[in-house]
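Project outcomes to date are best conveyed with an example. Our students and postdoctoral researchers have been running inverse folding experiments weekly, and each run begins with a structure described purely in tokens. The record below, which covers 287 residues, was selected by the lab manager from last quarter's runs and is presented without edits.
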């Protein structure tokens, strides 16, 4: 056999036996697979003894192997992630304890509210005293009236001296008086309500169609003078016409008392008290 024939025979033999490499690889993989199964497995001692007993009755042969010597695999999952043991609760009974702190809290809040209200009332009295002291001359001349209604201080400006009949133009000599009132009210907390009032006689001219429009215009005129940096955000203007008269509109004097603009410093609800005729008549005489 020459060299060419020998080479050809060798190549043919290798081609016929090439399946042996694939088979060897397959066997290696199967062996690795079973080794891994064994490494991840864990033999149960009780089941092993039951299986051994069954084998004994079936074949009559048993090799006595102590249970503690039985080889078994160790699970990595069991080692790293073993379940925790349940621990009994140290408290056998769940109890809830409450304290009666609501009543003292309400009392404290009520006390704080009373202190705050007392402080507001004191500031209102101080404003009244300051007006009576600093503007005593204007009060004596009857240019305005002062009335304390508990949580409201009312400064009542009548038409006489402040406005011409049927007009909403504030007289220039009256502007400094309103400015002085604005300065005093600026230091006192509370809402400032400016409300215009008229009598029940119909009012209609080239400027105003009725008493409602006239009363609103007069209130706006006073509010513009009162509006400073301390008062502008708490001003409220109302035009009430003849809906809230001080006195019945049965005489010219009563109607003159009803034509007014009221500046009310409000810190709460006013007390229900009507002005007596004597107080109003005294005010009219002083004017």
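After processing, the design step wrote out the following sequence:
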């Amino acid at each position: 056999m020459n060299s060419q024939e020998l080479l050809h025979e060798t190549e043919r033999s290798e081609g016929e036996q090439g399946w042996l490499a694939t088979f060897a690889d397959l066997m290696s993989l199967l062996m690795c697979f079973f080794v891994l199964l064994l490494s991840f497995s864990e033999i149960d001692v009780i089941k092993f003894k039951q299986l051994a007993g069954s084998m004994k009755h079936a074949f009559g042969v048993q090799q006595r192997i102590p249970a503690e010597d039985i080889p078994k695999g160790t699970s990595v999952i069991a080692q790293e992630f073993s379940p925790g043991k349940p621990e009994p609760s140290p408290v056998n009974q769940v109890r809830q304890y409450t304290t009666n702190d609501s009543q003292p809290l309400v009392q404290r809040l009520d006390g704080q509210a009373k202190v705050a209200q007392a402080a507001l009332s004191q500031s209102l009295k101080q404003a009244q005293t300051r007006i009576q002291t600093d503007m005593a001359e204007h009060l004596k001349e009857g240019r305005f009236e002062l009335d304390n209604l508990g949580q409201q201080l009312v400064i009542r400006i009548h038409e006489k001296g402040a406005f011409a009949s049927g007009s909403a133009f504030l007289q220039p000599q009256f502007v400094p008086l309103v400015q002085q009132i604005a300065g005093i009210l600026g230091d006192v907390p509370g809402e400032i309500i400016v409300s215009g009032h008229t009598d029940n006689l119909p009012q209609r001219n080239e400027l105003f169609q009725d008493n409602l429009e006239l009363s609103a215009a007069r209130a706006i005129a006073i509010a513009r003078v009162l509006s400073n940096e301390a008062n502008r955000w708490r001003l409220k203007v109302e035009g009430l016409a003849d809906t809230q008269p001080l006195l019945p509109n049965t005489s010219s004097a009563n109607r003159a008392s009803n034509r007014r603009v009221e500046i009310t410093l409000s810190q709460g609800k006013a007390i229900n008290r009507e002005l007596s005729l004597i107080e109003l008549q005294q005010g009219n005489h002083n004017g």
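The beta strands are 145-148, 150-158, 191-197, 235-239, 260-270. The two ends are 156 Å apart (CA to CA). The training component of this project remains on track.
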